[in-house]
Design goal:
Blueprint: H1 2-16, H2 38-41, H3 74-78, E1 85-87, E2 90-91, H4 96-106, H5 112-122, E3 131-134, H6 139-145, H7 149-161, E4 171-172, H8 184-191, E5 195-196, E6 207-215, H9 219-230, E7 235-243
Parallel strand pairs: 1-7, 2-7, 3-6, 6-7
Antiparallel strand pairs: 4-5
Helix pairs in contact: 5-7
Length: about 240
């Protein structure tokens, strides 16, 4: 009954204040996701190619893991990451790309719940997880943006998986410029010793899920995982919404 009422209210609101879908431009009606019509939102589908069991990088061949299910990509063999494994169910493509940008840079926090649902729909939590953490923002960046989009995703996932999502277990202690245009090596250098665990005893022996919005090179989540492991975490799993491929 509550969902039916909400749909009618959305339809009435869109009649009074018409709003176009941010992807196709068609007028929204009772579409369940803010800013996107249902046909466009349904274009978001999980990555179908086999992926590296460690970092989640898609292999170019659909038969890559047929004979060796544990085969790792070249980067993970040469540079084993600090996390146990990373799961990224979707490619950073339209309309997911537009939704992430609306959330991250335009303050459309209404999208955090449906985006977290996309993660939960594609992958479940690892076994024996104690808490879900978000990749932290530096306090200066947080003041600029006013929210941490990764924390919003982590909190919604925590509600769905009945897990706590504390905010103070890992902090970003060094402000770094935007890393969008940097190479992997430049990112690694930029991020060195950027994170800290204020109270190591709070995570000692814990199994943690680390959440971020986009997996680009993996440098940020790996540095976070390294910091958590050095502080005593037993295992760190990385869950990101979308991946650059």
């Amino acid at each position: 009954m509550k969902q039916t009422t909400s749909r009618w209210l959305r339809r009435l609101l869109h009649v009074v204040l018409p709003m176009p879908c941010r992807l196709c431009g068609q007028a929204l009606r009772d579409d369940p996701v803010p800013f996107f019509c249902q046909p466009c939102w349904s274009l978001i589908t999980p990555i179908r190619l086999p992926t590296c069991p460690r970092c989640g990088r898609p292999f170019p061949s659909s038969h890559a893991l047929s004979h060796s299910p544990g085969h790792l990509c070249g980067w993970c063999r040469q540079h084993p990451p600090a996390y146990h494994h990373a799961r990224t169910p979707y490619a950073y493509q339209s309309p997911l790309k537009e939704a992430i940008l609306l959330l991250k840079y335009h303050g459309k926090t209404q999208l955090a719940s449906p985006l977290a649902q996309l993660i939960a729909r594609a992958v479940g939590p690892p076994p024996n997880v104690d808490a879900i953490l978000a990749v932290p923002l530096h306090s200066r960046r947080l003041r600029e943006r006013e929210f941490n989009q990764s924390l919003l995703l982590a909190r919604h996932l925590g509600r769905q998986w009945h897990l706590p999502a504390p905010t103070s277990l890992i902090q970003r202690t060094v402000f770094t410029p935007s890393q969008t245009s940097l190479t992997r090596r430049e990112r690694l250098k930029n991020l060195r010793r950027c994170f800290a665990v204020p109270i190591p005893s709070a995570i000692e022996g814990k199994t943690l899920v680390l959440v971020d919005d986009v997996f680009t090179t993996g440098a940020t989540v790996n540095e976070c995982a390294k910091t958590l492991r050095q502080a005593g975490a037993q295992a760190v799993y990385v869950y990101t919404l979308a991946r650059m491929i």
